[in-house]
Structure formats: structure tokens, C-alpha cells
Specification:
The chain is an alpha/beta fold. 28% of the residues lie in helices and 26% in strands. It is built from twelve helices and 24 strands. The strands form six sheets. Strands 1, 2, 3, 4, 5, 6 and 19 form a seven-stranded mixed β-sheet that branches. The protein has a five-stranded parallel β-sheet with strand order 8-15-9-10-11. The longest helix is centred in the first third of the chain and has 25 residues. The termini are far apart.
């Protein structure tokens, strides 16, 4: 028997955008229903993305440390030759995911959000039918928040299945592949490729562009390329992948030569696309911007009281962007006029906007990369910008944790006229932990003197941000 349900807010998708929006709606006293078809709350990021990948990367780093100790010793430490039981590693990773799933469920319950597990299909902009294990539920809502996320792009000549895998399957292998070929030299492929290299796999990366991580400037990516070269990762740049048959991937190299790469697994990471199919988006009457749902600076779609957040709305496809958008939408629906990021409150909730100065991005490669705001490619040809770089090899903390010899640095870009920060980037071990400091300074409209005037704790990697700003002002201390 079909049930009927009406609610103030209906949210589709329990990823980092959807569940945060639901919790905030609940906190603001809005009757909220959250629908999600997956087995675990938290979406791609929590279940098969950000969190589990960083867990596997952490395990790989530990294995590499022990392997160094077994191979002649490191820092005076020696050990026996290590081995890895990937099934146990994956079980540990799954335990983390389940703990976080339970945490999200608890937070939603605390916020009095009704969670329905099932697949939603819209018949119009405000009505959907959810297929659950107990039957169908027709839900009507005053406001709808679309947070359906994204999915891996599948190549027509390399369909997923068997030994051709996406990042999802790569995080749940039961053993380390002897030979892994990664198709795509973006951050997902390199994060996982580097992790599996540390675990002992022979890794080859096939990338169509002339260098890895083509969205970042070369200075940031060079240390990653050097690590890969030094650790036996084969890079095939300017190359095109073909079909996979009889345990070999067909590749056309940069010279146009046909090459067969033997592989136990082929990991395809050529990007992600918004999840727009299969749930009735075409019946909702919302405008599109290419493959994405078109939104304004309030995350509103072209249909009144239908909102969209997260990967569904375009680049950057980052979890923290979706979460921030979810909070904004919840507060607009609730009539909250308070503006984000310390800005003055608006006269009307309709003026509440998603208007960040920057959304920092991190690549958890070896070494890590952080980028916030404008980079050198964005200001190329301009003579009104100061750029200054400070190397991590001049930072005591970096040397003390073996993070000073891989070419790492912190770079600042600022306006020549008023010294306002325009962008901050870093590459090096553990620099992901600096990302929030970079974003905070940019969001607050800081100038170089603000960063220089903050007494940075010694010894920390954050001192490199301080020194880079001093250098931009012409008086770095330690270089």
C-alpha cells in the first residue's frame, strides 16, 4: 500500500551536502525528510571517497615507513621485512566508515530529521515517489533540496567490471595488485596510485595531458612527479588508453606507437559527473548549465523553492563546498538573514548568499598539494601582483619530520598596491593541515602584514606561511 507524506523540506541525497543541510534545517526547527538510497549515510565522501581513501593512504604510509626500516634502516631504526594483509586493512577502513555512518545517523536523529532509505523519483518539482523495502511513499514538500552528488565517469571502451575498476572498487580490494595501471593523472588516480605503489604494486599512470595534475601549475606538481619517478612509478604522458583484453591495456603513446601494458587491475579515474539520471530530474522543470543543475548565488534553481547543492551544481566538486551550500540553503529557507564568514547581516534572508572568497583544494598525493585563491596561471602577464615562495627545507619542523627534502614550499600572491592576499599554495608533506589557515586569511581579506603580524608557533610547518609573507614584503628572516 502506498503511503503519503508531506513536509516542509525534502532533501534528496545524504552526502556531505545533503546531511549537513538536513541537520541545519532540523536545528532551525524545519520539518525535514531526508531520502537516500545508499547503504550508509554520508554519501560518496564518507563511504567510498574522501574518508576511506585517506584511511588507505594512511595505512600505505605506515607500510612504507616499516619497509624503509627493513631496507637498510631509517633514522637508526631497523625492522623485519613487512607484509600487508589488505583484507584486514580494508576491514579497518570499513570500521571507520561504519563509525562515521552511525555518527551521522545520530546527528540526524538529534536534529529530528526523518530519514527514509529508498530511491526517489520525481513526478514534478515538489513531488516524488520513494521505493523502499516496505513499499512506496509519495512525498510532497514545500521546499526541495537536490543533493544527489556525482559518480565516476566510465569510458565506453573501458567499461567498469571485472579487472577494470573505479575508485570505489579500488578502496575495497582484497589484495594488492601486482601490476596496477591508472588511467587518468588527476588527483584521484594519483592519490590511489601512489598509495598502492607504497604497498608494493607496480604502478603505471596513463595520462592524455603532457603532465600530471594539469589543473595545477607545474611548480606545485613537479615534486609529486619527482617522487613518482624516484619510486618507480611509470608515467606515460600524452598517451591515450584503449581497450583492455587478455590482461593487457592497449595504449597509444605520445609518439603514436601502440603499447600493451600488462595489468592485474586497471583503475579508471578520468573524472566525475553529476548524478542527474534515473530520479526524474527531467520532470522538475529546472534549468541546466551544461551537465549541471543551474543555480544562482543562493543555490536556488530556476524552479521556485527548489534548491541544488554540491557536485550536482558544478566545479569544484568538493565535499566542503556542498556542506557550506547546505547550511546556506537551510538558513535561507528558515528566514535567517545572518551572513556567513563574519560579514554584516543582510536585511532579508533573500540576500543570504553562497559567496565564498575561496574554496581551498587539497591533493593527498606524495607530497601533498594545497591551493587556495589565485595561482600563478591566473595572474600571468599581470604586473600588479607580488609572488613570494618560501622553501620547507628552511623550516626546522619540516627537517625534523623528514619533510624538507622533496622540493616543498609555501607560496603567496598578493596585490602590489594594498598587499591584500590573492592566493596561497603549498606543496610538501602534511601541508594539507595548512589549508584552513590559507582559506581563513583569504576569507577575512587579510593583507601580507596581517600574516606577518601573527606570531606563528615554533616549530611548525605554518611558519613557512609567515616567512613567505615576510619575503613578499622584502624581509624574510630565515632565507
Amino acid at each position: 500500500m502506498t503511503q503519503s507524506l508531506t513536509t516542509k523540506v525534502l532533501i534528496i541525497g545524504a552526502g556531505t551536502g545533503g546531511y549537513v543541510a538536513a541537520i541545519r534545517c532540523g536545528q532551525l526547527g524545519l520539518e525535514t525528510v531526508l531520502v537516500d538510497a545508499s547503504d550508509g549515510l554520508g554519501g560518496t565522501c564518507l563511504n567510498v571517497g574522501c574518508i576511506p581513501s585517506k584511511a588507505i593512504i594512511h595505512a600505505a604510509n605506515k607500510f612504507e615507513t616499516v619497509a624503509k626500516a627493513a631496507n637498510g634502516g631509517t633514522l637508526g631504526i631497523t625492522a623485519s621485512k613487512p607484509s600487508v594483509d589488505l583484507k584486514q586493512t580494508v576491514e579497518w577502513k570499513n570500521g571507520i566508515v561504519k563509525k562515521l555512518n552511525a555518527g551521522v545517523a545520530g546527528l540526524l536523529k538529534k536534529a529530528k530529521v526523518k530519514v527514509i532509505k529508498g530511491w526517489a523519483t520525481f513526478s514534478d518539482a515538489k513531488t516524488c515517489t520513494v521505493k523502499t523495502d516496505d513499499g512506496e511513499i509519495v512525498i510532497s514538500a514545500e521546499h526541495v533540496i537536490l543533493a544527489t552528488g556525482s559518480e565516476p565517469v566510465e569510458l565506453p571502451f573501458l567499461p567498469f567490471g571485472g579487472d577494470v575498476i573505479s575508485s570505489t572498487e579500488a578502496l575495497s580490494l582484497d589484495k594488492v595488485p601486482g601490476r596496477l595501471v591508472v588511467v587518468g593523472g588527476g588527483y584521484i588516480g594519483l592519490e590511489l596510485g601512489i598509495a598502492y605503489r607504497k604497498l608494493g604494486a607496480e604502478v603505471t599512470v596513463v595520462e592524455m595531458a603532457e603532465r600530471i595534475l594539469p589543473l595545477y601549475d607545474k611548480a606545485l606538481t613537479d615534486p609529486v612527479a619527482k617522487w613518482m619517478e624516484a619510486h618507480g612509478v611509470k608515467l606515460m604522458l600524452g598517451a591515450k588508453a584503449g581497450g583492455f583484453e587478455k590482461g593487457a591495456l592497449n595504449v597509444t603513446d605520445k609518439d603514436g606507437q601502440a603499447v600493451k601494458l600488462k595489468a592485474d587491475k586497471v583503475l579508471v579515474t578520468v573524472g566525475r559527473r553529476p548524478r542527474t539520471q534515473g530520479w526524474g530530474l527531467e520532470n522538475m522543470g529546472v534549468a541546466m548549465a551544461g551537465p549541471f543543475v543551474k543555480i544562482d548565488d543562493r543555490c536556488a534553481t530556476s524552479m521556485k523553492n527548489v534548491w541544488a547543492i554540491g557536485d550536482l551544481t558544478g566545479e569544484p566538486m568538493l565535499a566542503h563546498k556542498g556542506s557550506a551550500q547546505g547550511e546556506v540553503v537551510a538558513e535561507i529557507i528558515a528566514g535567517r538573514a545572518q551572513a556567513a564568514s563574519g560579514r554584516a547581516a543582510s536585511d532579508s534572508a533573500k540576500e543570504r548568499k553562497f559567496d565564498p572568497v575561496t574554496i581551498a583544494a587539497v591533493c593527498f598525493t606524495e607530497p601533498e598539494i594545497v591551493s587556495a585563491g589565485l595561482g600563478p596561471n591566473d595572474v600571468e602577464g599581470r604586473d600588479d601582483v607580488i609572488q613570494a615562495v618560501f622553501p620547507l627545507m628552511a623550516i626546522g619542523r619540516a627537517l625534523a619530520i623528514e619533510a624538507g627534502d622533496d622540493g616543498g614550499f609555501v607560496r603567496v600572491l598578493a596585490s602590489k598596491t594594498d598587499h591584500r592576499l590573492l592566493g596561497v599554495q603549498a606543496v610538501g608533506q602534511h601541508v594539507s593541515e595548512l589549508s584552513n589557515s590559507f582559506a581563513q586569511m583569504l576569507e577575512m581579506g587579510a593583507v601580507l602584514e596581517d600574516v606577518a603580524g601573527v606570531i606563528h608557533v615554533h616549530p611548525t610547518l605554518g611558519e613557512a606561511f609567515h616567512e613567505a609573507s615576510l619575503r613578499a614584503l622584502g624581509h624574510a628572516i630565515h632565507i
